[in-house]
Give the backbone structure.
Amino acid sequence: MMRIPRILHYCFGFSENFGGKPLGLSHYVCIRSAIEHLSPDRVYFYYEYEPAGPWWGKLRGIVEPVRITAPREIFGRPISHPAHRSDVTRLQALIEHGGIYMDTDVFVHRSFDHLLDYSTVLGREDEEKHHKLCNAVILAEPQAPFLRRWLESYRDFRGKGRGKFWNEHSVLRPAMLANEHPNEITILSNRAFFWPLFWPDDLARIFAANESIVGPETLATHLWENKAWRPYLELLTPGKVRRTHNNFASWATPYLDGLPDDFAAPGAWQRLQNTIGRLDDVRVEYSLKLSNLPNKFRHSLHQG
């Protein structure tokens, strides 16, 4: 009997504005890909603020919506950021039920059946051994010792948002615990779930190139929507995907069969906001690069 049950878990909508990333085409095709390749018995979709719109209408019938109140504290320590509330929720759900947790921007390419006899499975985020283990994909049996140990480690949680301790408990802490308790966890290479990474050249491999990046070790691809949303994901429609020749388009197209080209097309206001946001991103990136230049070069640029 398999130790890890065929139960999928997703977390979404832990902030009222969905972190500026409402449910869209990319989430829909990612969840569809998981259902097709993993053949789950149940698909739990946890949310505090329910999504809306056409894509949610398509998904709502194939997942089990679970409205929750996301945790605001753990062991007396406040959890202020929605992403950290999601981090805790996924561990609690997996400890209780077991199964497979995935972020809604993880596209699945093939079955995970060969992993279901382990206790806990994580993938490296980078190529350095045990340096970073990402919680965007977690497989675990119910009451998995590693997950209980991981949740217990939140007694010293100190994350307050995107700052120094942003990924301490989601990426760095599981790597540290894996080094201390290697018999409780199975670790996959970064090629299993987290390659390419989130750097601009890596994202271009997914969204702007068509040379295959799905190798023999590749089980899924994390789309890194925090970085990819504005330039690649926000304004997608079925028609745009069909007209585009890149890796993501080739993966997504089969799951859009039968949908009109303009299904859930973004309105003029959303397109304008996307343009403004992308221009702002360029400004911030330029400012960061400028701040890293020696003072004399910065002075000459301003003088020029």
About this structure: The first helix runs from residue 25 to 38. The CA atoms of residues 292 and 298 lie 9 Å apart. The chain has a mean pLDDT of 91.
